[in-house]
Amino acid sequence: MTPRDDSDANSNRWSDLDRPPLNAVALRRALVRNGGHEGLWRAVDVVQHTGSTNSDLVALATEGKAEEGTVLVAEEQDAGRGRLDRQWTAPARSGLFFSVLLKPTGVPVERWGWLPLLTGVATATALSRAAGVDTALKWPNDLLVTVDGQERKTGGILAERAGADAVVVGIGINVTLREDELPVPGAGSLLLAGATTTDRDTILRAVLRSLGQWYEKWRSVGGDPARSGLQDTYAAGCATLGRVVRAELPGDKSITGEAVAVDGDGRLVLATAEGVQQPVGAGDIVHLRPAGDQGDTGDTGDR
């Protein structure tokens, strides 16, 4: 699917003055340097509306029409996906919805599973610095903020293969979503978390710069999560570690235990009541409340 840019036809792009459009020219000037020959980012395109930036960029990469470092941003998408093909939708210009194309040459394929975790570290770091919001990571791909003393999901990450040599990583961040616009009670936004700025241009530049720095550092050591510092940094910012969680696995199976580590393969290690340390490579993770309470923390999953 080709993303459609409705910038000329969309007469309502300034209908909400609290949500101005992104400045594509300024973004390219700030991120794409020396004709794209310095740094990671080669192209930054902003479209007004599309189905899914991930689907669009995967298609372009598969057709050989996009190179590593391509960034595709949508002001609005109506078929955005999280894990397990869950829908991610939000009002126009209320968040950042974008995908990047990476080709981690020199990194063994078995280490590519670290890319969503790397993206989480880079994004959380950027949000803390640029927006003043303390952002935690929920394994494997959620970004959490605190709103009125409660953990809420404000962002998610989805990585997809694009042919034999590329990965498209999609990032969705709720920026100015208001309480009455939340899709589920457990969702949040940077605005609701008390961000010092909700300027999406500023936040997007910060996230992409942080992602570029972490990616180059990781790739320079062959994707080694320990030597790059990624494994320790992820663990330090992971809200899942140290908690009792339930891992909901394919086939209607589940495992409950304390999340004690993220191993060298990026898997979450659970210490079960039976004394077994069980690595979990894929599944939905529910943060359980302290002993004596019932239910969970209102986890939202992906949208």
Please explain how this structure is put together.
The protein has 303 residues and is α+β, with helices and mostly antiparallel strands. 21% of the residues lie in helices and 26% in strands. It has helices at residues 24-31, 53-62, 115-131, 200-220, 230-237, and strands at 43-47, 70-74, 80-81, 87-88, 95-102, 136-138, 142-147, 150-161, 167-174, 244-249, 253-262, 268-272, 277-280, 284-287. Strands 1-2-5-9-8-7-6 form a 7-stranded mixed beta sheet, with helices on both faces. Strand 11 and strand 12 (268-272) form a beta hairpin. The two termini are 21 Å apart. Residues 6-14 and 290-303 have low confidence and may be disordered. InterPro entries: aa-tRNA-synth_II/BPL/LPL (IPR045864), Biotin_CoA_COase_ligase (IPR004408), BPL_C (IPR003142), BPL_LPL_catalytic (IPR004143). Pfam families: BPL_C (PF02237), BPL_LplA_LipB (PF03099). It comes from Streptomyces phaeochromogenes.
What's the topology here?
Layout: H1 24-31, E1 43-47, H2 53-62, E2 70-74, E3 80-81, E4 87-88, E5 95-102, H3 115-131, E6 136-138, E7 142-147, E8 150-161, E9 167-174, H4 200-220, H5 230-237, E10 244-249, E11 253-262, E12 268-272, E13 277-280, E14 284-287
Parallel strand pairs: 1-2
Antiparallel strand pairs: 2-5, 3-4, 5-9, 6-7, 7-8, 8-9, 10-11, 10-14, 11-12, 12-13
